[in-house]
Amino acid sequence: KLDTFLLWKFFLLTVLCYLDRTNLAFAALQLNASLNLTGTEYGIGSGIFFLGYTLFFIPSNLALMRFGARKWLAFLVIIWGIVAALFATLKSVPQFYVLRFFLGAAESGTLPGMWYHLSLFYSGKNELTASWSWVLVGIALSQVIGGPIAAGDCMLSAL
Prior knowledge:
The chain has 159 residues and is mostly helical. It has six helices and no strands. The chain has one domain (2-158): Up-down Bundle (Growth Hormone, Chain: A). Helix 2 packs antiparallel against helix 3 (69-86). It is globular, with a radius of gyration of 17 Å. The N and C termini lie far apart (44 Å). GO terms for molecular function: transmembrane transporter activity.
């Protein structure tokens, strides 16, 4: 029961997490044109995600321990969703930088939070690593489906 309930949710969350991280590469042409981004500005925006991720990685995990995995993961996913939705309103390069930074900050505690949450339910090392491997399959799946989703979006945008 737990496998079905928890692992599928974490699997889907991982797929969304990595789609979110990598979709910038698929959106580069349209994004560069709409914001008049130079290659340098695009690269900075891409890297700022990891600045937010790195700066908030430890504080996010401390908050996880303080508030509990369930509450903290829910908070992170809500913030992450809000930030991702705000990308639809992008009008300038500084906004792009700010949103990428906060996207990294919001995602920084997601994978460690899922690992910690799973460790509460799976006691044996083999059980934990086996369950975690199913969650991480979501990374590969996100890479497989990211391109076709982006292509479909481009075709819809062209209509």
